[in-house]
Amino acid sequence: MTQSALGLSRRNFLRGLGVGVALPGMLSALPRAVRAAETAKAAPLRMAFMSVPNGVQQDHWWPTGDERDFTFNTTMHSLTPLKSHVQVIGGLKHENATAGRDGAGDHARASATFLTGQRARKTAGKDIHVGVSVDQLAAQKLGRRTRFPSLELSCDAIRNSGSCDSGYACAYQYNLAWSSPTTPVTPEANPRLAFERLFGAGSPEERRKNYALRQETERSVLDFILEEAGDVQRQLNPGDRRKLDEYFTVVRELEQRLKASEATGDLPKSDRETPSGIPADFSEHMALMYDLLFLAFQTDSTRFGTILLAYDGSNRVFPQIGVPEGHHYLTHNQRKEELAEKVARIDAYYMEQFASFLTRMSVAQDVDGQSLLDNSMIVYGGAIADGNKHSHDNLPVILAGSGGGRLQPGRYLQVPEQPMANLFVSLLNRLEIATDRFGDSTGRLEPV
User: Fold this and answer.
1) Claim to verify: residue 181 and residue 82 sit in the same structural domain
2) Selection from 368, 373, 347, 336 nearest residue 358 by Cα
3) Do 297 and 154 share a structural domain?
4) pLDDT digit string (tens) for 327-358?
5) b/e sequence 130-150, b meaning 16+ C-beta within 10 Å
6) 39-56: per-residue pLDDT in tens?
7) Is 443 part of any domain?
8) Mean of the per-residue pLDDT values for the chain?
9) How many domains, in total, are found in the chain?
């Protein structure tokens, strides 16, 4: 082997052996014994975020009454059977979503700020910059406990390049999750691809067979790599052999990751047929994405997720509920009572899908005998309050779930004005992530 050959990257070296290694996505999972020991103590705590666009119709959103004795307004009527499982929180704001010196672009700023609490750099180029989102911070700290650190879903288009809102990059508007200040985590909009990522392709029986075959193939590939690498090493002089040692590192890593994968056993079982793709009906699309997040939580495939229900600024029409006008258009014409009522109708439509998801979570039993919702923290809302004014204070926020007994649901909580990031600090602390700062937080939101 020549000196130049020894300078190849690890990946090129493996290609040089004539093999390609494609490992499945669940290789970061802990061994079954570790997970069993963990769940024997307590059920896992899950956290998810749902983003709705364009603010809400304020007159129809806020409940009436006091903290414990309150009545849902028309928008949240579908949550009535779930009243003991949710908190409606008023008083939170996202100062970094306001115009400041940046001028127009409230929708892009709002989307970028929603889960980061940071101000997005105004650019339509590649030099995007905002902050790590709360879901990704949790995934980076705790995500190795499951097959997938996090799950990002969208019911809208995927756009990560170009300009979308008054000089802001599309990446700000079409992504909720950010793994670094410059790296959005692109959501999956196709239910079929998301399902196959979680459970494999084909029918339930085909998925099980394909997974077993994939595991066997990968074992064979690794055996081949080790054999071929050994033959190469024997042909080298002692100096070159030492240089080759670094390439064996990747082989050892692959071995360990494959062993970890095998220790988790089979893929989680699901009798659901694989979705055919993106449905034409928006209601069905949302329902599928909520179902996928539910299945991911139920099978403990991940504990952190986001769903972008529609990009902020969306002008989607809703003929299925008698609203042929665009959503964004309507929010800027709420001075007309009949148009304001249509905005409220759209808000209620989104809420009905959320309520169906919470209902399913509330009846599914977790490993400790409680429900999945009891052991979850689910945030629903956005970083625009009033779409007509583009205001970013007194944001529409719902917190569902009991957080494994760490939250106090069943309340209409009106708090002194403070950053929404204070809520994120509190949620991170309930995950036992020790921090007193996140985004533009000024402390913890207590009590929640």
Assistant:
1) yes
2) 373
3) yes
4) 999 999 988 999 999 999 999 999 999 999 99
5) bbbbbbbbbbbbbbebbbbbb
6) 445 799 999 999 999 999
7) no
8) 85
9) 2
Residue 194: how many other CB atoms lie within 10 Å: 24
**pLDDT tens per residue across span 258-300:** 455 445 455 676 777 788 889 999 999 999 999 999 999 998 9
pLDDT at residue 103, as a whole number: 96
| 437 within some domain | no
pLDDT digits (tens, 9 = 90+) for 126-164: 999 999 999 999 999 999 999 899 999 999 999 999 999
Residue with tokens 């929010």: 331
**Helix axis angle, 238-263 relative to 204-234, nearest 10°?**
160
pLDDT at 386 over 60: yes
Same domain, 224 and 297: no
Percent of the chain with pLDDT over 90: 70
